[in-house]
Amino acid sequence: MKRILITGGAGFLGSHLCDRLIAEGHDVLCLDNLFTGSKNNIRHLLGHRRFEFIRHDIINPIYLEIDEIYNLACPASPVHYQYNPIKTMKTSVMGAINTLGLAKRVKAKILQASTSEVYGDPEVHPQREDYWGKVNPIGIRSCYDEGKRAAECLMMDYHRQNGVRIKIVRIFNTYGPRMALDDGRVVSNFIVQALRGEDITVYGDGSQTRSFCYVDDLVEGMTRMMATPDECIGPVNLGNPSETTVLDLARTVVDLTGSTSRIVFRPLPNDDPVQRQPDISLARRLLGWEPRVPLVEGLKETIAYFRRVLSN
Ligand code: NAD
Ligand code: UDP
Ligand code: UDP
């Protein structure tokens, strides 16, 4: 069994990964500064003998003895990563440097949670790993997009220069239970609005597309990637190729919740990508992985979660 560090472990994805790795019998060190994460996401693990919570900001160095690192620390919702964009960039860049320095010192394997945002507003559709992207370097999303691109660069350079064992996964829009109520991303926004009977806020005309992956599928993909041989470094896309417009998502959420909410239209934020869909041929081939949970099933689970949270 391994000692595994998860940075951002109290967040949405990180907490599900903690559950998975604890269930597999590993020692899990969950590091988080609780900016967008919450102890509520890991409360059920706090007394567990193989689980440890470390409140720490990853822009500062940390010295631990571990076998593997999943580097997830970084706000992921546009609302939160734009709240303090300088801090977002520091988290991606200095967080990568510190976790890579740590991986180098203790010879740990490190997996970077990169993102489909490295493709920006893509001219190639669906997006394959060999596409370099169309990213605005000076816009309101740049702190996140360029921060994540710099982190990929650091991963590759620590690998080439210092022989660090790295894995890069590019995660496409993922949703599920434990997204924060105020997360601001589209799936949680629409569900919370529908359950509260508030207007459902579609930005722009809702014709932009995303491809939504359920959290359990994503966690499976990440752990499979970590288990690959050392020469398999990625980047590898992880996401659900089933594409939908934002307006269709709004309608589906209204149907599934039985809500009386109206769908209203709000201005489209700057640089909002028009389309996004992962090509997952590489993940299929390398990991024997593909998502299993259809959107409607995943939405039902997520709606049930938010119903419980809102009734407490
Ligand atoms: P999240 O906001 O729920 O999780 C991020 C976690 O990182 C939070 O717990 C937050 O408190 C923590 N964190 C932020 N800054 C930190 C810092 N400086 N030091 C320590 N901890 C810090 O978001 P998520 O959806 O769980 O995303 C997790 C990771 O996956 C992120 O790196 C994100 O960029 C990446 N990702 C997620 C998606 C998605 O659709 N969910 C898509 C692409 C990439
Ligand atoms: N670092 C860390 N934990 C470790 C080893 C390194 O946080 O166990 C940090 C260290 O503070 C440094 C960064 O990781 O700033 C990069 O480490 P590296 O060894 O690459 O750089 P150097 O120490 O030579 O600047
Ligand atoms: N969006 C929306 N209403 C909301 C939140 C988001 O229409 O309340 C749109 C947003 O403009 C984008 C898509 O939904 O086109 C996905 O947004 P999200 O913030 O979830 O993630 P992104 O993929 O843009 O980083």
Oligomeric organization of the protein chains = single chain
Strand runs, count: 13
And the CATH topology of the domain at 3-175 and 212-241 and 277-291?
A: Rossmann fold
The SS-based structural class is: alpha/beta
Q: What is the second-level CATH architecture of the domain at 3-175 and 212-241 and 277-291? A: 3-Layer(aba) Sandwich
Intertermini distance: 37 Å
Helix content: 25-40%
Mean pLDDT: 98
Structure write-up:
The chain has a seven-stranded parallel sheet, with helices on both faces. It has a two-stranded parallel sheet with strand order 7-10. The protein has helices at residues 12-23, 78-81, 85-106, 142-162, 186-196, 215-226, 246-257, 281-287, 295-311, and strands at residues 3-7, 27-32, 51-55, 68-71, 109-115, 165-171, 174-175, 200-203, 209-211, 213-214, 236-238, 243-245, 263-266. It is globular, with a radius of gyration of 19 Å. The protein has a domain at 3-175 and 212-241 and 277-291: NAD(P)-binding Rossmann-like Domain (Rossmann fold), CATH 3.40.50. Helix content is 38%, strand content 18%. The model has no long low-confidence stretch (mean pLDDT 98).
